Amino acid sequence: MTGPGGVSIVLVRGDITAQSADAIVNAANSSLLGGGGVDGAIHRRGGPEILADCRRLRASHYGKGLPTGRAVATTAGRLDARWVIHTVGPVWQRDEDRSELLASCYRESLRLAGELGARTVAFPAISTGVYGWPLEDGARVAVRAVREAAGAGGAGGVEEVRFVLFDDEAYRAFEGVVG
Ligand code: AR6
Fold first, then answer.
1. Distance from the CA of 40 to the center of ligand 1, in angstroms?
2. How confident is the model at residue 95, as a pLDDT?
3. Whose Cα sits closest to atom 3 in ligand 1?
4. What is the DSSP string of 113-150?
């Protein structure tokens, strides 16, 4: 169903590296040089071109790394996509509300995807793995951020935002929010 700003939200259970989309979003860390989870899988399946691009970014605009909440694009290498958009989620903290930073990851990634000319964008559930964000809250922040950005015209020509959820628990958390 088409939502605010003409953007449809689609939920899929699976591995994000197996998706076909214009842009695939990576739950990276600020080094941009790889890691575990989605990040490890993207670099493994996408091949060395992605890391080469990341190294170039570190050597130019992002000498100190990519700040939390921001997004940057590289080639998608061998993935079935035109771009990988790397974003850095916040580490979850019990005593500090960092949800604005998590929302910023979705907003900035979507804005960049729109600027690049993407129509389909695949997102993982950012911060809900290694970074410890509770799934249901992570889903709530994600869906709200996408709907708000789309409603405010912040998604350019993006037509589909696909959340790619790795397991049943994550899928159900998003299903509960999207309805
Ligand atoms: N496809 C889709 N979802 C996945 C996949 C996959 N292949 N693999 C894991 N998930 P995480 P974060 C789910 O840890 O929490 C890395 O080391 C996973 O179950 O990938 O933002 C980076 O370099 C979880 O629900 O990202 C950073 O250091 C969600 O994707 C750090 O982890 C996100 O889990 C970022 O941590």
1. 8
2. 97
3. 166
4. HHHHT-SEEEE--TTSSTT---HHHHHHHHHHHHHHHH
Active site residue 39: yes
Domain boundaries, the chain: 4-178
Is residue 155 within 8 Å of residue 7, measured between CB atoms?
Answer: yes
> Is residue 124 within 6 Å of ligand 1 at its C-beta?
yes
pLDDT of residue 1: 65
pLDDT of residue 59: 97
Nearest CA to ligand 1 atom 7: 15
* Architecture of the domain defined by 4-178: 3-Layer(aba) Sandwich (3.40)
Residue 126 CA, distance from chain mean position: 6
Centroid of ligand 1 to alpha carbon of 31 (angstroms):
15
Note the pLDDT tens digit of each residue in 59-77: 999 999 999 999 999 999 9
User: Which portions of the chain are predicted below pLDDT 70?
Assistant: 1
Residue count (the chain): 179
Q: CB of 125 closer than 6 A to ligand 1? A: yes
Adjacent-strand bridge partners of 53 = none
